[in-house]
Amino acid sequence: MVKPALLVLAAGMGSRYGSLKQMDGVGPNNEAIIDYSVYDAVRAGFGKVVFVIRHSFAKEFQEVFSAERFGGRIAVEYVFQELDYLPEGLAVPEGRVKPWGTNHALMMAADAIHEPFAVINADDFYGAEAYETIGAYLKELGGSRGRYCMVAYDLNKTLSDNGTVSRGVCGVDAEGNLTSMVERTQIERMPDGRIVFHDGGADEPLAEDTPVSMNLFGFTPDYFAHSKAYFPEWYAQNRGNLKAEFYIPTMVNKLIGDGEASLRVLRSAAQWHGVTYKEDKPALMAAIERMIAEGRYPRNLWK
């Protein structure tokens, strides 16, 4: 059975957080969120981790997150996302400084990944259950094409106490497959207890258990070819918008809409943890301490 790979999107600088948050210590021995992600992936049977980074901090990143750090338990590779890494014939529009988005970052790994793979954000703490669930699904895919998956969380377990969040709100059919994914911004819990989003109009309520995406997807390698083929079309449509980003949900929605792929929604009842804002860090550190006390993680991950 082929071991799946883990693709970690770590090229973002985290402007709201104010530093390279993917390298910030949150564990008792200065472990980063990435350490817990890799640890959970190793336990779930993943065989390789590929980091998407940028040249501007590559030396610092590679010195920290090396195969030696993880005790040789998993193979480690690095690929790079840069603004001018575009398909042949395309150029960076004048004035464009914003990165091209998560699906562009994913595309950078096309030459490094040839097996089913999961993709995650570097700054999200998904929990062991999520890796076990998606790992088991990916191991069953083998040489399949167009059968993808994602782990969806209950919205009420993905909020921040320190500001609004953006989430991909998922529509799911009776068979458990994704029908749509709509990005909702400025989601928060109101003083009266309701969860609402403020997308440019009146407050719209969302149910507590609304399934949302936290960018934990599972794909087979054919996804790279679909992305490469569609990017020029997306680029042509969005070239004039210097802030437009080619998101994973953009590509997923197109493939589902065109009938070229299906995506199974794997529900998780777990609490998501992350550092959307700098003020979120103490709560995450406290949660890790609780999980260590419960025996879910060792105090020193890589000892």
Describe, in plain words, how this protein is organized in 3D.
- This protein has 303 residues and is α/β, with parallel strands linked by helices.
- Helix content is 26%, strand content 25%.
- The protein is built from 7 helices and 13 strands.
- Strands 1, 2, 3, 4, 6, 7, 8, 9, 10, 11 and 12 form an 11-stranded mixed sheet that branches.
- Strand 7 and strand 8 form a beta hairpin.
- Helix 1 (33-43) crosses helix 4 (128-141).
- The longest helix is centred in the last third of the chain and has 17 residues, at 222-238.
- The radius of gyration is 19 Å and the shape is globular.
- The model is unreliable at 13-19 (pLDDT under 50).
* Span of the ends, CA to CA: 29 Å
Helix content: 25-40%
Global morphology: globular
Strand content: 25-35%
Subunit arrangement of the protein: single chain
User: Uncertain regions: pLDDT < 50 for 5+ in a row?
Assistant: 13-19
What's the total count of β strands? Answer: 13
- Average residue pLDDT: 92
Main sheet summary: 11 strands, mixed
Instruction: Compute the CA-based radius of gyration.
Output: 19 Å
